[in-house]
Amino acid sequence: MTDTSTAASPVSPAAAPSGDGSSLYLVDGSGFIFRAFHALPMLTRPDGTPVNAVLGFSNMLLKLLADLKAEAVAVVFDSKRLNFRNDFYPEYKAHRPEPPEELKPQFSLIREATEAFCLPCLEMEGYEADDLIATYARLAREAGRDVTIVSSDKDLMQLVRPGVRMMDPMKNRMIGPDEVVEKFGVPPEKVVDVQALAGDSVDNVPGVPGIGIKTAAQLITEFGDLESLLARAGEIKQPARRQKLIDFAEQARVSRRLVLLDDNAPLPKPLDELRVREPDHQKLVDFLKAQGFRTIVARVQAEMAKDGSIADAAAPSAAPAAGAPAAAPAAPQASGEAAPRVRSHSLHAVEKRYELVQDAEALRRWVERARETGVLAVDTETDSLTPATATLVGISLATEPGLACYVPLAHRAEGAAADGLLDFSAAEAPKQIPADEALAILKEVLEDPAVLKVGHNFKFDHQLFSARGVRVAPLDDSMLISYVLEGGSHGHGMDELAELHLAYTPIPFKEVCGSGKSQITFDRVPLDKALAYAAEDADITLRLWTLLKPRLVDERMVTIYETLDRPLVPVVADMERCGVRVDQAALARLSQDLSVRLAEIEKDVHALAGQSFNIGSPKQLGEVLFDVLKLGAGKKSKTGAYSTDSSVLEELAEQGHTIAQRVLDWRQLAKLKSTYTDALQEKIDPATGRVHTAFALAATNTGRLSSTDPNLQNIPVRTEEGRKIRRAFVAAPGHKLLSVDYSQIELRLVAEMANIAALKQAFHEGLDIHAATASQVFGIPLDKMTSDIRRKAKAINFGIIYGISGFGLGRQLGIPPGEANAFIKAYLERFHELKAWMEATKAFARQHGYVTTLFGRRCYMPGIQDKNPARRGFAERQAINAPIQGTAADIMKRAMARVPKALEEAGSGARMLLQVHDELLFEVPEGQAEEAAALVRRVMEGAASLGVPLVADAGIGDNWDEAH
């Protein structure tokens, strides 16, 4: 059994704090307030007070104290906006907007949080937090102490020097002289001079017009310092730059005074009082409970329940040998001893008892332990991330937090050759249970309905077990629980969630297997390292489940998890295992055909350009279009190259420039060739003749599944080339492909969610919805409808869902933006319910930071409060689209969860192969195709009860294109 219970540091061991009490940690509290506020979605406590910044700040303090184990820590805040700099430059920070209304009440709460953690809380009227940090850093260095400034603020980088460093806990990185040079182009002692020249528009530091950071760094490097530069400005070769340095010399000097930190500020507390005090546990818990922070409270209370204290944890003893009982913690030193006591704030620490299971009897004991607890966390280790071909190297189990084991099944022998490379020929494989015997022992408990199995991204593990005859059930997935609770507000990988919820950094994979060319597969990892890594995975999975599962009830998200996301794990796992058959010869022919066509287009483009060049090079293309052919002024990027993205080329094509259209044609075919006709051939499993895509269950903000490796959801449907690619997806001999997709589901949901009476009636009557819309908006009877008017109504119908503008609609329809705007205005006036729903939805998003689907899934909108109009506008369009797209995804999930059982009960041999947006693709025995089509349509149309009918269309064919 290996004990690895010490909390991981956020930095490398060489750079990690010593923890001996001699270091001073100065936390930039004001900086973290704003970072926390913008990093987390809007949250409110029961009385309606916003607390998202308080939560982020509290989590930061919790993790910081757990990782540092320092005795001298202080949190420093700004006092008021005005300070001594405004006395000589009133415009300093004058243009900064007022803090968001939701943030203002959190300032005092964050100070309360600091006090609740029993940390010194420092501020001084007339000075900024940065000045206090500079002063304490100077005094500490003069006293021979090391200083770590906990911040990523560039303005503090001027303080970095021997004995003074910065630490960015959000990114888990240290900032020393090298990082300062990377940021400013100069060492720390010259940062102030660079800032004086470049200025800062955010803080209204004027600088010298036209000089940025890069130029400023070059000038300071050449002339040594600001005063030398200004004194010798006449030597500058560039006339404009020379004149600006002469004209704005005094402004540069004022800017230097503004950015130079005052390290002689008055002290709110003496240096020797900046010490971590013994926490008042109950005060801390009471404060956290008042804010509604259940996860943090649970961690604090768990530690209090463990030993009555969240402090004074002794350092762990050395790890015992494998199989030996974990050593007890060392006794703390007596109070009279000279050596200082190291205080630990590792609130999440739980003793780890990990066992290496190498015989059947030991494994049976773990099976019995699982039956006693009724819960078993399960994780697998493999030599590949491709389930169809991966070898099951080992299985890890956990039955309670801190109690886990690893069962090696296919590890190779250990050894090392003289050149440092592993050599497995000289030794026998380590002792381990034969895989078949281990699976036979585990099968009963993994299939036992009385024992809940818990995994993280268990779809992968489910495929491994299914391929070996084990159908794991019932199961919970901590990744999906997190996804249901917090959606797209952050990632849901185990490591990220461990950091977020447990303030714990798991063992990195590269630490066990290496990286790059020297990386080894897991079957070559020595068993002691494999135990520590693999058992920890199962342990963390169980801990996350313990913390997150109760929140489903508290936050009323049980239905989404139980009826939409959890049931999909075995369904999607089976889909991936099955795969879809692909005609490799057809793809090869398509690739050859595309190569010929690409060569022809390339020849045309070269002729139009009057020269040969690399069409795939944006730089060369830009030079040809704008320097050689003079097709306009062009827009240059920061690198100096012309922009040649699709919007630029489309605009040129609309102006009648044939070369731009031909380049667009070339790009489209080149992408199809590289992404599909070439790449798909490499993805065909030679054993099955099928492509096995991977569906991500927790990757989108709306609940949609996404397809990767390869992505089969983006194959074009409306182009001839896309249809040819779909024709290469074929049915097995004696089978047909069945495609069933929802008809206009998003438009139906618009009518439902906005309660648009006219559109709902049209859907109930089975009318052509685009013609019906055109009739309503333009006042034209259905019997006099033209295809052109219907086309305009169709563009508005779909465009409205995505927040289309008059410019975008005009471009799509080939009409002036003013005319397109008139169409949109008429549409929203006729369907006034839609406009009201859109405004209400945006208002809800602004208030809560998310929108919801009809089923209650939350889709987070982090940019909804952004000060930048473009980013805010994008978030507002997302806020309108997400409930529609998300509800469609929820309905599809409900259908997918029900279809397999319905097919099984009907005795059908149909197998579900793919889910692509609103479509499901099946492979069906030829004689059962019509019956299966009727059954799947019935299930899909009954997946939700709405005020509009759901309609599913079915098609049958020998290939995907025919079926669709």
UniProtKB/TrEMBL annotation:
EC number: 2.7.7.7
Entry keyword annotation includes Nucleotidyltransferase: yes
InterPro entries named among the record's database cross-references: 3'-5'_exonuclease_dom, 5-3_exonucl_a-hlix_arch_N, 5-3_exonuclease, 5-3_exonuclease_C_sf, DNA-dir_DNA_pol_A_CS, DNA-dir_DNA_pol_A_palm_dom, DNA/RNA_pol_sf, DNA_polI_H3TH
Enzyme class: transferase
Biased composition (Low complexity): 322-339
Family per similarity comment: Belongs to the DNA polymerase type-A family.
Segments forming domain DNA-directed DNA polymerase family A palm: 722-928
Name listed for the protein in its UniProt record: DNA polymerase I
Keywords: DNA damage, DNA repair, DNA replication, DNA-binding, DNA-directed DNA polymerase, Exonuclease, Hydrolase, Nuclease, Nucleotidyltransferase, Transferase
Gene3D superfamilies: 3.30.70.370, 5' to 3' exonuclease, C-terminal subdomain, 5'-nuclease, Ribonuclease H-like superfamily/Ribonuclease H, Taq DNA Polymerase, Chain T, domain 4
Keyword flag DNA-binding: yes
Membrane spanning residue stretches: none
Pfam families: 5_3_exonuc, 5_3_exonuc_N, DNA_pol_A, DNA_pol_A_exo1
SUPFAM superfamilies: 5' to 3' exonuclease, C-terminal subdomain (SSF47807), DNA/RNA polymerases (SSF56672), PIN domain-like (SSF88723), Ribonuclease H-like (SSF53098)
Subunit structure: Single-chain monomer with multiple functions.
Domain of life: Bacteria
Gene field: polA
